[in-house]
Batch of 2 targets.
Target 1
Amino acid sequence: MPIAVIGGTGFYKLLENTVPLQLRNEYGSVELMRGNYQGREVIFLPRHGKNHEFLAHEINYRANMKALQELGITRILATCAVGSLNPEIQAGDLVLIDQFVDFTSNRPKSFNKYSVDMSEPYCPQLRSCFLQAAKELDIDVRDRGTYICGNGPRYETRAEIKLFQQWGMDVIGMTNATEAVMARELGFCYAVVTIATNMAPGITAAPPDLATHRRVVQENRARLTQLLLKTITLVPEERHCDCRASYERALAARASQLKAGEGA
Ligand SMILES: [Zn+2]
């Protein structure tokens, strides 16, 4: 079974025999790369497009996830960059987030067809693969964290950041809640390692700055890529989690609602 990786643009260069793929579905067209790593087929999806052409709210999350489903993907490993709201999380730190709060309103956020269980939004099996890989490589990964998903494209005000901190949020980004919801809605196993690239405004006096963000990503790219590649090798063929079953329960519940409605 192929594994999908969603992340920044550099990753696919480490795969073997890469070929570009272009898929079209009812939501739009998607550009991906297909390759191999240690005998395992890997599909790579550059989240923001091959040339970073899509801002967070412009990403066609539905087309992306549907394309992965059509390719027979069942597991997705993701990485994304975040700002830190927690002084214990410094620039360059890796955080395997376990919860999110969705604060977005400027994009399609769901396939809008049935209600899925999101109480544990990330796959426990893939999370433990990430942690095992980190342990084997001696890479520090914080194993919990709550992510708040902001609208973008603007950054937050100091008052917003203060509020999010009071709510107990650890990191902030603009993509992950949307991606995680749609992953669950299609029954994928999905987990994400985030990299903190800066402290959010209000925690630091420095304004958000793209050059710093790029530098931190660049400095940590090798570590993050190693972690991803190792994790790919540790994902077992069989799924021992509830991700697929919770999706099937959602489908069945919706079908039964519709049936009951028909009979009423
Ligand atoms: Zn799972």
Target 2
Amino acid sequence: MKIKYTIICRLAAFIVALIVVGCRGEISSEDRKAASQGMKSQEVKKVNQADIFAAGLLRGRQIAEAAQLSLGKKLKETMLNEGVQEAIRYCNIQAYPLVDSLSKAYRASIKRVSLKLRNPDDAPDSLENVLLNAYQYSVDNDMALQDNIVSLNDKFLLYTKPILIGDPVCLICHGKKGSEVSDETFSLIKSLYPYDSATGYKMTDLRGMWSIRLSLKEIVNTIND
Ligand code: HEC
């Protein structure tokens, strides 16, 4: 009898334990959610400034490379197949939409800026101006050139990368007037860009920079993914 009683007791305890576990099981879906959110926010907290800057630098490099590739490829193709004049018209019409579509694809704001402008829309803002001048200083003093990432505010980072005259092809539209830039080419440029000051460049000169604004949230997501 005693034995039976003990067994029943154990059984009852087992059932109670099961119910408790079961209940826990039911609550746990919310618990789990809260826990995972807690864990996520902890993960986000664990990502430090250095991680964010490193990830931003990688992302910026990836975007600048894609932008440079697609603009450069189209430019060369057009020059080869349709000539310089058409390529200028192509740059005039297509450079912005192409960069804009890349901006959308990468959810970043992509710009080219310069101290000697062709398109007035590519004028630098005050921070870009400082960074461009810093790159120019490095070029003038034969110092190593490096891309950069800086914090804009608590929402955005700014990635910048110098653009050099790295290919003789550039000189056909940005080189010496009357020789490298033919009179015909120059008059078309002037008709499209009356205030153009983007000629007179030599090989390895600084032509401008990529300026890519990255969302901090996106960058943190790439780390947490
Ligand atoms: C066929 C002529 C042509 C060639 C070749 C060319 N460009 Fe340009 N470039 C232009 C035109 C036109 C614009 C203005 C585009 C616009 O309206 O957005 C421009 C604009 C730019 C800008 C943006 C800044 C500004 O002044 O508006 C940069 C940077 C630039 N070019 C760099 C280069 C580099 C580097 C090369 C060589 C790889 C090159 N370009 C070759 C015609 C050319």
